[in-house]
UniProtKB/TrEMBL annotation:
<feature type="transmembrane region" description="Helical">
    <location>
        <begin position="79"/>
        <end position="103"/>
    </location>
</feature>
<feature type="transmembrane region" description="Helical">
    <location>
        <begin position="42"/>
        <end position="67"/>
    </location>
</feature>
<keyword id="KW-0812">Transmembrane</keyword>
<feature type="transmembrane region" description="Helical">
    <location>
        <begin position="231"/>
        <end position="257"/>
    </location>
</feature>
<dbReference type="Pfam" id="PF00335">
    <property type="entry name" value="Tetraspanin"/>
</dbReference>
<dbReference type="GO" id="GO:0005886">
    <property type="term" value="C:plasma membrane"/>
</dbReference>
<protein>
    <recommendedName>
        <fullName>Tetraspanin</fullName>
    </recommendedName>
</protein>
<dbReference type="InterPro" id="IPR018503">
    <property type="entry name" value="Tetraspanin_CS"/>
</dbReference>
<keyword id="KW-1133">Transmembrane helix</keyword>
<feature type="disulfide bond">
    <location>
        <begin position="176"/>
        <end position="205"/>
    </location>
</feature>
<keyword id="KW-1015">Disulfide bond</keyword>
<feature type="transmembrane region" description="Helical">
    <location>
        <begin position="115"/>
        <end position="138"/>
    </location>
</feature>
<dbReference type="InterPro" id="IPR018499">
    <property type="entry name" value="Tetraspanin/Peripherin"/>
</dbReference>
<comment type="similarity">
    <text>Belongs to the tetraspanin (TM4SF) family.</text>
</comment>
<dbReference type="InterPro" id="IPR000301">
    <property type="entry name" value="Tetraspanin_animals"/>
</dbReference>
<keyword id="KW-0472">Membrane</keyword>
<dbReference type="InterPro" id="IPR008952">
    <property type="entry name" value="Tetraspanin_EC2_sf"/>
</dbReference>
């Protein structure tokens, strides 16, 4: 009789301990959270996945512009173009890393990580907002001074390597010559103004200047179009990522309040 009573007591203790253990596990995994909290948790994880993809896109576009579309930057006589692209690259990498922190904080329901995530997301959002304003200011300033700066750089062709390379790449890739036309070069028309038949082989245009041998369009308008395209790419990505980050701020704040 006593033995059976002792066994029953032991079984009760084991059941209670098992129930307590399961309840702790459920709380650790978010089981104690209501349906609204679980919805915020899932939404925050989803937002961070989208933010990570947005960071990858921003990083990719920034690197692409820097590597393949920054050749006219030397002709602008300022570093604002390179600086704006560098900000895009840095923000893309930061957003990617930050999204991982947000996923971990949401999945494990760690309030400290969520608070850190919220603060960093807010800082990056402000930086992106300021960067967008600077990009707009940069575009307006470049369009107002670019023609003058391109004209001023022509005398440096052939004497300074960076200007020679910038003009050759600009005229080759944009298929243009001079600022407004080939006449800007006077009698010293660069070989890069000649039509490229295939890489390394050009037509002779120094003594036969016509549309079949020479690029007749000026580089100013084509450079402006290139910069506008770059600004449109960067601006679109920045707006999309910023909207996702606003949603991430809202869900992270709500999840932080829901965690007990």
């Amino acid at each position: 009789m006593l033995a059976n009573l002792g066994v029953n007591n032991l079984m009760c203790i084991l059941v209670l301990r098992r129930s307590d253990f399961l309840s702790r596990v459920a709380m650790a995994m978010g089981g104690a959270m209501d349906s609204c909290g679980r919805c915020m948790k899932i939404s925050l994880v989803a937002m961070n996945v989208l933010t990570f993809l947005g960071g990858v896109l921003a990083l990719g576009i920034g690197v692409w512009i820097w590597v393949s579309r920054s050749f006219p930057s030397t002709l602008m006589s300022n570093n604002m173009f390179i600086a704006s692209v560098a900000v895009v690259v840095a923000m893309g990498a930061a957003v990617m890393i930050l999204s991982l922190l947000g996923c971990c904080g949401a999945a494990k329901e760690v309030k400290c990580m969520l608070l850190t995530y919220y603060i960093l997301v807010f800082i990056i959002f402000v930086v992106m907002l300021v960067g967008g304003i600077l990009l707009f200011v940069f575009r307006v300033k470049v369009l107002s001074t670019l023609e003058r700066e391109m004209h001023a750089s022509i005398p440096n062709y052939g004497t300074r390597r960076e200007y020679t390379r910038a003009w050759d790449e600009t005229q080759t890739k944009l298929q243009c010559c001079g600022v407004k036309s080939y006449k800007d070069w006077n009698d010293n028309v660069p070989e890069s103004c000649c039509v490229e038949v295939y890489p390394g082989q050009r037509r002779d245009c120094k003594y036969s200047q016509n549309p079949t041998t020479m690029y007749m369009d000026g580089c100013f308008n084509k450079t402006v179009d290139l910069l506008r395209e770059d600004a449109a790419y960067v601006g679109t990505v920045a707006v999309v990522v910023a909207l996702i980050m606003v949603l991430a701020l809202i869900f992270s704040c709500g999840l932080f309040v829901k965690i007990e």
